[in-house]
TrEMBL record:
This is Integrase catalytic domain-containing protein. Residues 137-175 are annotated as: Disordered. One of its GO terms (molecular function) is nucleic acid binding. InterPro entries: Integrase_cat-core, RNaseH-like_sf, RNaseH_sf. Transmembrane segments: none annotated. Residues 1-115 form the Integrase catalytic domain. PROSITE patterns: INTEGRASE.
Length: 175
């Protein structure tokens, strides 16, 4: 079925194969029938491997969350059933589910900028709780988890970041 799915997807895209497809290490993607197909078609496979240029950990994390969701059915009765389930799941995942990697915010609130206001309200609430009951915090003023300034698929090493910052500082501003 996976082989047919890939072939159908390419046909539906006017015969144009993608440069890469996400491939986890599950039984389907490692089966003899499917594992050689992308290579035969000249398609790279992305896997969850750090420091690999075609890795996609965001997709991998989302797939894992989807597959291990308690509401995920063992199988779908039809493509329509799958579309309905996935539509509801991804709406929840992006607008309600709080993600630890982005300071317990939703992707939607980070994307639309409202996370900054939410972060400020959280900080004010924690500060008020600290002032009212400092003994609960062992003398340490609490703060909400920070929002990431940048999000990386393959974060460059600190040395590389320093080199890039130094190089950009030495590059004359030509306008």
């Amino acid at each position: 079925m996976a082989k047919e799915f890939i072939e159908h997807a390419i046909a539906a895209n006017d015969g144009i194969a993608p440069e890469a497809i996400h491939a986890d290490r599950g039984t389907v993607m490692t089966s003899t029938t499917v594992s050689g197909l992308p290579a035969l078609l000249g398609i790279d496979q992305s896997h969850s491997r750090p420091r690999v240029s075609n890795d996609n950990p965001y997709s991998e994390a989302q797939f894992k969350t989807l597959k291990y969701c308690p509401a995920f059915p063992g199988e779908f009765g039809s493509i329509e059933d799958a579309n309905v389930f996935c539509g509801q799941f991804f709406r929840y995942y992006n607008t309600e589910h709080r993600h630890s990697g982005i300071g317990m915010h939703t992707p939607a609130s980070v994307r639309d900028g409202s996370a900054v206001e939410i972060q400020a309200r959280r900080a004010a609430t924690l500060n008020a709780a600290f002032l009212a009951y400092p003994e609960r915090f062992r003398g340490r003023r609490p703060s909400p988890p920070p929002l990431p300034a940048r999000v990386w698929i393959n974060k460059p090493s600190t040395d590389l970041e320093d080199d890039e910052a130094e190089a950009s500082a030495q590059t004359p501003n030509v306008a």
